[in-house]
Amino acid sequence: MSQTLPAPTGTDASSPGPAELRARGRLPRWAPWAVFAGALAVIAVLDVMSSLNIALYALYTVVLGMIALYVLSRAVEGRRKATDRLVTSLVVSAFGLAMVPLVSLVFEVVSRGVERLDVEFFNSSMVGIVGEGGGAYHAIMGTLIITALTTLISVPIGLMTAIYLVEYGTGRLKKAITFLVDVMTGIPSIVAGLFAYALFAIFFGPGVRLGIAGAVALSVLMIPVVVRSAEEVLKLVPNELREAAYALGVPKWRTIVKVVIPTAVAGLGTSITLAIARVVGETAPLLVTVGITNSTNLDPFDGRMATLPVFAYYQLTQPGVPPEYAIDRAWTAALILIILVMSLNLVARLISRFFAPKTGR
Amino acid sequence: MTTTQAPQRPGSQPAVRRLGDRLFAGSAGGAGILILAILAGVAAFLVIQALPAVTAPAEEIPGGEGVLAYVGPLLFGTVLAATIALVVATPLAVAIALFLTHYAPRRLAQGLGYMVDLLAAIPSIVYGFWGIFWLAPRLVPFYRWAEENLGFIPFFAGPASATGRTMLTAGIVLAVMILPIISAIAREVFSQVPSLHREAALALGATRWEMIRMAVLPYGRSGIIGGAMLGLGRALGETLAIALVLSVSGGVVTFNLISSTNPSTIAANIALKFPESSGIEVNTLIASGLALFVITFGVNLLARAIVNRRADFSGAN
User: Fold this and answer.
1) In angstroms, rounded to a whole number, what is the distance separating the alpha carbons of residues B306 and B22?
2) Do residues A269 and A168 share a domain?
3) For the stretch A74-101, what's the b/e string if a residue is b when 16 or more beta carbons lie within 10 angstroms of its beta carbon?
4) In b/e form, how buried is each residue of A190-224, taking b as 16+ CB within 10 angstroms?
5) By the CB < 8 Å criterion, does A236 face chain B?
6) Does residue A1 fall inside a structural domain?
7) Percent of chain A scored above 70 by pLDDT?
8) Which of A337, A335, A334, A315 is nearest to A326 (CA)?
9) Which residue, A31, A137, A224, B204, is the most exposed by fewest CB within 10 angstroms?
10) Helix, coil or strand: residue A99
11) Per-residue pLDDT tens for B4-18?
């Protein structure tokens, strides 16, 4: 520790000495950087002696840097400032720590997933595939079909509910719906799947697997998301617009359809896109309601379908022999899922940026 | 339009209700009620399908000792994994929220906020992949070290797992998954702290940390609690990340976090067993799902009540 202490004063000859610093009672702005650079250097020296892995390297650097900065600041600036600096470094490193999973996950998925990111993956199914080759055409189509169905079910219900909450709702019912929609966003996805299974099992007998059942399960997850975000967006529409329409004698429903919704359309697009992104990667409900198949089934009302997340799950957990080909396929499926989700998120942001109405507020 | 009548009726008379208006209002209200019906339906259908398992003789249930004995260890595993996740994630999420609202340069803060939100967007199965292939092997040396040096604590009794697919790993993966949820709520509350409070603290000579401790954290406390509860709800119900990461053995109840003998969680157990189940096994799994539904519903109810109570008082809306 003590090696790093001279670092901030020693690096620059023209900087004030320790005594002057104490008199002023403040560390220069570059002091934290210098301390952490010093800590990095010390650990680098230690690293040469006994090689550390990168996690320990970073951990030791941060811990050493924090202690050094605390001691230095305590000596120069006093206890309160030192605590402040300690908390600052803790908060910043907490954020850095949170970025580790994101970066490593994206790196891992991309580097392992590009292996099988070829044409065959997109245009062939798994029929008759043992070992090498094969693709996820059937799973990609299945995911697109089921997600489209989910959107078709969820958006009208979700949007109408949001309209009810913002434009019509009063009193107890509004409060109850708002609250329960909030609670509903927390329903575990597997429970939504079990619900859809239980519902369809009553009509089609036990062991039922249908694409539409998956869409119903996903709708249970998607509807509350649509309601919540659409409600927020509709609330942003200025009341003056509504009042202006009423003053012109426009009926309420036409005001909503012609004035409120067009004003909010960009935000609604964003919220629907984000809601789709939320359900497109859901695995658990599809696992229990739709199952998996090796062949291409594009009819959601007839038997099992393959979907991308479930495909990835089974390729990883039941790879067969030799396992490496299936595991490669699983990673590529995961990569496509991530690309899908991230591009939906990106599209959502772009919608809100480019189609945002020009309001006077 | 045919609205000539409306202006002639001022006062208490109800306005003319056109067919279009009635249809539209009706369908909007109907959609709202439909949501309540769906929620009731979720509970109802789960109960219907779970009943056969509850009423069946104990020896027919997998495990042979009845539904409660079957669900008990799973419930324990669920709560244990979620607790680990909560303990790891909450302080980190609060720190991240503080960073984004009070420390990061304002121009960067929004972009960095998106980065944290991206964590929420990643599908849970991908977290499972990451947990098995990236995180678990990297934790093995730590587990070995913990077994040798911290073995006297029951949590680290070992024997350390060779694959790293332990309860602690699962808890950490869950923690990463709920991090964005907690930090999103915390961020929202922290950014609503009245600037007068903050400026008053700073004007009295408080350092930034003292200002946060005296003005921001007390104001945001219920938001943090509510956010943590929402994260808990998510962690309790998380399925595939656990199903992939955790190496389970049926029916164990243990606090040992670093061995490869772990209780499963309700959700992961359903995902693992459901595809190959039939008959009474399915009903048993649905019964366990019902238990999960009731618990997460309760947790979310409480969380929302806490978060909303704050919103009523804040004056921000």
Assistant:
1) 36
2) yes
3) bebbeeebbbbbbbbbbbbbbbebbeeb
4) bbbbbbbbbbbbeeeeeebbbbbbbbbbbbbbbbb
5) no
6) no
7) 90
8) A315
9) B204
10) helix
11) 444 444 455 555 667
Residue A2 lies in a domain: no
CA B214 – CA A78 distance, rounded (Å): 20
**A142 in the same domain as A291:** yes
Q: Residue B129 burial by CB count (10 A; 0-12/13-18/19+): exposed, middle or buried?
A: buried
Give me the interface pTM, i.e. the ipTM: 0.85
Domain hosting A258: range is 121-354
Q: What is the CATH classification number for the domain harbouring A275? A: 1.10.3720.10
Same domain? For A200 and A87 the reply is: no
In a domain, residue A87? The reply is yes
Q: How far is A161 from chain B (nearest CA, A)?
A: 5
Q: What distance in Å separates residue A92's CA from the closest CA in chain B?
A: 6
User: Residue B36 and residue A176: Cβ atoms within 8 Å?
Assistant: yes
Question: Do A76 and A46 lie in a common domain?
Answer: yes
CB atoms within 10 A of CB A239: 8
Consecutive H or E run containing B43: helix B19-55
* Rounded distance between C-alpha atoms, residue A96 and residue B92, angstroms: 10
For B85-122, write each residue's pLDDT tens digit. 999 999 999 999 999 998 988 888 888 888 888 888 89
The residue out of A54, A80, A108 marking a domain boundary is A108
Q: What is the mean pLDDT of chain A?
A: 84
Residue A144 CA to its chain's centroid (Å):
19
A341·B299 Cβ contact <8 A: no
> How many helices (DSSP H) and strands (DSSP E) are in chain B?
12, 0
Among A53, A77, A108, which residue terminates a domain? A108
User: Does residue B183 surpass a pLDDT of 70?
Assistant: yes
Same domain, yes or no: A152 and A252: yes
Is residue A179 within 8 Å of B308, Cβ to Cβ?
yes
Closest Cβ–Cβ partner in B122, B267, B304 for A341: B122
Residues 47-66 of B with CB under 8 A from A: 48-49
Are B215 and B198 a contacting pair, CB within 8 Å? yes
pLDDT at residue A117 is higher than 70: yes
Q: Look up the pTM and report it.
A: 0.85
User: B186 Cβ partners below 8 Å, 6+ apart?
Assistant: B93, B94, B96, B97, B98, B220, B223, B224, B227
Q: Could you confirm whether domain B56-312 is CATH 3.30.70.100? A: no
Cβ-nearest to A102 among B103, B119, B234: B119
Q: How far apart are CA B83 and CA A314, in angstroms?
A: 29
Show Cβ contacts of residue B239 under 8 Å, excluding neighbours closer than 6 positions: A188, A189, A190, A283, A284, B124, B267, B268, B270, B271
Q: Which two tokens stand for residue A213?
A: 């059942």
Domain ranges of chain B: 56-312
pLDDT at A359: 54
Q: Can you give the pLDDT at residue B308? A: 75
Number of domains into which chain A is organized: 2
Q: Is position A260 within any domain?
A: yes
Q: Which of B123, B179, B300 is opposite residue A283, by nearest beta carbon?
A: B123
Q: Examine the domain organization and report whether A103 and A191 are in the same domain.
A: no
Q: Are residues A227 and A335 in the same domain?
A: yes
CB-CB under 8 Å, B112 with A198: no
